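Sequence in, structure out.
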Amino acid sequence: MTDRNDPRLRHQPEPGWQVLDRDLNRISRVEYATSYVSQPLVAVGMAMVFVALAATWAALVAGGGAGSLIVVVASAFAAYLALNIGANDVANNMGPAVGANALTMTGALVVAAICETAGALIAGGNVVGTIASGIVAPSNFADSAVFVIAMMAALLSSALWLNLATWLGAPVSTTHAIVGGVAGAGIAAAGFGAVDWGGMGRIALSWVISPVMGGALAAGALWVVHRLVIDRDDKIAAARTWVPILIAVMSWAFGTYLALKGLKHLFTISFGQAMLLGVACAILSWAASKPYIRRQSKGLENRNKSLKVLFQLPLVLSAGLMSFAHGANDVSNAIGPLAAIVSITSHTDGNGAVTVPLWVMVIGALGISLGLMLFGPRLIRMVGAQITKLNAMRAYCVALSAATTVIAASGLGLPVSSTHIAIGGVFGVGFFREAVEARRMRQMADTVELPSVAPEERQRRKLVRRSHFMTIIAAWIVTVPATALVSGAVFLVLRHLQAG
C-alpha cells in the first residue's frame, strides 16, 4: 500500500479532478460574494427603470408641445421623490406592527403597498391644492417659466434630502421636506418676500407639537392599558372586558382620522360629521370584536405574552388604515409640484386648485409603493425594533396616539406631521417603560439591598436608544433649512442651464 505521508510523495502533483474541484469552489465563492454585493444595486436599478418609465410616459402624454421637455424632466423628479417618500415615510405606519410581530416584513410590505396605492388613487382626489400655494404663490414670480423651474428645484431637493435621510436611518417629514424645497426655490427666485412666513411659522411650531402630543398620548394610552389589563391579577378576564372597548376606541380614532385625512378628497365633510362617523365605526367594531376576543382568549395562559394574540388583528388593521390615509394625503407631496407644472405648461390656472391628471396621480401612487418595497425595510426595522422594544400592546398605543393626535390637531387647527407623531409615540412608550422600570427598581431597593450599578452600565440599560433619539431630532430640526438651501442651489443651476 502507498503511504500518503511518505515524504517522497508530498511534492507530486495532485490529480486533475482535485485541482478542478478546488478552482470551482473558488469560482462559486466569488459568484456568491458578487451576488451579495450586487443586491443593493438591483433595487437601485429597478428604481432607475421606474424613473425612466415615468419620464417616457410623460413624454407620450405631453406630446410634442412647447413645454413637453419640462414636463418630462419634472415627471422624472416627481417619480424620484415618490420613491423616497415610500422608502422613508411609510416606515412610520408599518414599523410598530412589524416590531410587535403582528406582521412579517413581507406581509407589511404587501399590505402597505396595496393600501398606499388604494389611498392615493381612491381618496387622493382629482383636485389637489398646489403644495406651493400655501408657501409661495405663482403671482410672486416674474413669469411662469421661473415658477416652473422653482417647482422642479423643490421636487429634486426634497427627493435628495429624503434619500440622504433614509440612508442615515432617520425618518423625517416628507411634508416638511417639500415645504422647505418650495420655500428655498421661492427665495432664490423672488426674494424673501415671496414666502408666506406665517405659514412657515406654523410649520415650525409643528416640530414641537407633533412629537410631544404623539408621545404624551402614546404614554397615556399605555398607562391605561397597564391599569385596565396588564397589571390585573386575572389578565385574560380583564382582556375579555376591556380589549373590545380598546378596539372600539381605535376604530373611532381611525374612522375619524380617515374621514379627515382621506375621505375629504371625495366629498365635503365637517369635523363633527367625521366624529360621528368615527362613533359609528366604534359601535360596530365593539359589537364585532366581543365574540372574536372571547373566542381568541380561550385557553390562554394568565401572562402578558398571551395578550399579544388579542392585539394582533387591530394592529394589522391600524397599519393598513394608516397607510391608506397616508397614500391619500401625502401623495400630494410628490405630485403637487408636478401638477402645478403641468397646469402652467398647459396654460391653465395655477393659482388655485390644480386638477391632477390621472397619469400624474399614478406616478405618485406607484412610486410610493415601489419605494417602500425596494428601500423601506431598513427604516421599518429601525422604527419597529431599534428605537425601543415594542410588543402588541405598545404598538397599539403608538397607532392609537397617531390617529388621535391628528384628530385633536385638526380640531384645534394646529399643523402637525404624521411622521413626527408616530415617532413621538414610539419614544413616548419607550420613556414610559423606563419610568415604570425605574419605579420598580426603587420599590425593590426599599425591600432588599440591590448591588450598585456603575453609571456606564445604567446608561446601557436604558430602554430607549439615545443615539437614534438624537439622530432623529437633529434630522427633524435641519429638514426645512437643509432642503431650502439645496433647493435654492438647484434653482440657480437650472436657471443657468435654461439661460444657456
